[in-house]
Amino acid sequence: MLLSLFTLVALVNAVFAAVLWDGRFTADTIPAISSWSWSNQKGPYQWYIHGNGATSKYISTSASYKNPASNDALGLRLTIDNTAKWNSDMWRTELIPQTTAAINKGKVFYHFSVMHKATNAPNPAFEHQVCFFESHFTEMKFGWINPMLRWYAGSQSRWNTNFTADVWHNIAFGIDFGAGSVTFYHSTGADPLVQTAGPVSTSTSSNGADWHLGVLRLPKSGVSDGGAEDWFYSGVYIESGTLTTSVGGPA
Length: 251
Description:
Strand content: 35-45%
Order of helices and strands: HEHEHEEEEEEEEEEEEE
Largest sheet: 8 strands, antiparallel
Low-confidence stretches: 1-15
Number of helices: 3
Signal peptide: 1-17
Pfam families: GH131_N (PF18271)
Domain Glycoside hydrolase 131 catalytic N-terminal: 19-242
Number of strands: 15
Keywords: Signal
Oligomer: single chain
Structural class: mainly beta
Shape: globular
Protein name: Glycoside hydrolase 131 catalytic N-terminal domain-containing protein
C-alpha cells in the first residue's frame, strides 16, 4: 500500500523528534503538583508561583479543557484572580517544568496550546505576559496597550492575531540556544503548525528552570480589577530534533 506524502512526513518527524520534557496533563498531574515543595521536587512541574488559596482554586484538569484535536488525556484550566498574588500586586498563576533534561541547550521546541472562553475571559485593559522566560527573550502577550494576542522576541512584538473566545491557538517557540535565535510557529484548532515569524536574533538565556507556563497580569492604576480570568492550556511539551507540526502531538 502506498503511503501519502503527509503520512511519510509524519513518520519522518516521529523518527527525528525527541520529547525532552512532557508536561501534558493526566489524572496524575494535579496530585503531583499539589504535593510539590522545595523538599519534595517530584512530578512534571514546579508549583510555587500562585496565591495563598488551595491548589484547586488556581488550576484544575478535565478532558473538556483540552484542544479536541490533541491526543492529551486532559487539559488545564488556569485561573488568576485578586487572591493570585505572589511577591507583588501582580496576578500570577504559573507552572515551571521540573526536569534535569537539556531544555536550555541546542535547538529545541517549546509547545503549548492556549484558549479562553467568553466566561471569565481575560481583561484586555491589563497587560498579560503568557508562557514567558524569566529574561522575557520570548513570550506571548495580551492586552494593554493592544487587545491582540502577540508574540514578542527581543522585547519587540513580531506577530499578532485576534484572541477570540473558544479558538485554540497552537504555538511552538523554536529556540536555537547556540545561535541565539527564536522562530515562531502557530496554527489554530486542528491545523498543523506552520512557521509564521522569525527567526529573530535575541539573547536566548535560560537556566532550564525559568520557563513560566501560565499568566502574569500587571496591575494598572485607575482600572478596576474585574473578576477572575480562566486560561486553558493543552499540548504542553518540549522536544528536540525535528518540529512536530501535528496538534495531536508525539506519542
